[in-house]
Design a protein that fits this description.
With 181 residues, the protein is an alpha+beta fold. It is built from four helices and ten strands. The two termini are 23 Å apart.
């Protein structure tokens, strides 16, 4: 789907890849979940997919089952572990690298939580030194609240980013989608 979307965006924006040409495009995650089998397919353009598993043993086996671009972040609690599947490092647009997007097939486990997001949360400036929030801090926040209901996780994420921004300005869109299996 992302490959076809890229063709349509290139056509709509009349991109030719010439020097000085505008570099419009988008980063995106696309997820399809079969709710009967808990199988999913995911592809990402510059955006990752996080899977938080309530059974740490499932994290290691999931990592080997989805080996391309998968990283055990080394982030674990007593209750959960987190793996990251990295998106392909290219946007939905004309780009120096025009490889096919990788379609990841993943067998989810009951009680897994998957997260898709834009880069707005981790790129947000704030905190005591007006630095970026960063992906490691976001992963730690997701993992430390993995046993909370999704509605409470939403409130925790909103509170954390609002405190991070403080009196500053939000600089980008912030989107996080969490889905509990």
């Amino acid at each position: 789907v992302l490959n076809e979307l890229r063709k349509e965006v290139i056509n709509a924006l009349q991109q030719k890849g010439k020097t000085g040409e505008q570099k419009d495009g988008m980063d995106i995650s696309m997820l399809v979940v079969n709710t009967e089998t808990n199988e999913c397919q995911w592809a990402g353009a510059n955006n990752p997919l996080y899977i938080v598993s309530s059974t740490q043993s499932a994290v290691g086996s999931r990592q080997s089952a989805v080996s391309i671009g998968t990283e055990d972040c080394g982030l674990k609690t007593e209750d959960c572990g987190l793996i990251e599947i990295k998106g392909d490092k290219m946007p939905i647009a004309i780009y120096e690298r025009m490889d096919e997007f990788t379609n990841h097939e993943i067998q989810l486990q009951k009680s897994d939580t998957i997260y898709l997001m834009s880069d707005g949360y981790e790129d947000q400036f704030g905190g005591p030194h007006n630095k970026k929030f960063k992906s490691k801090q976001l992963k730690e926040l997701l993992l430390s609240n993995c046993t909370q209901p999704m509605s409470e996780q939403k409130e925790i994420l909103e509170k954390a980013i609002n405190e991070w921004i403080g009196t500053g300005e939000q600089i980008d869109d912030i989107t996080i989608l969490g889905l509990k299996v």
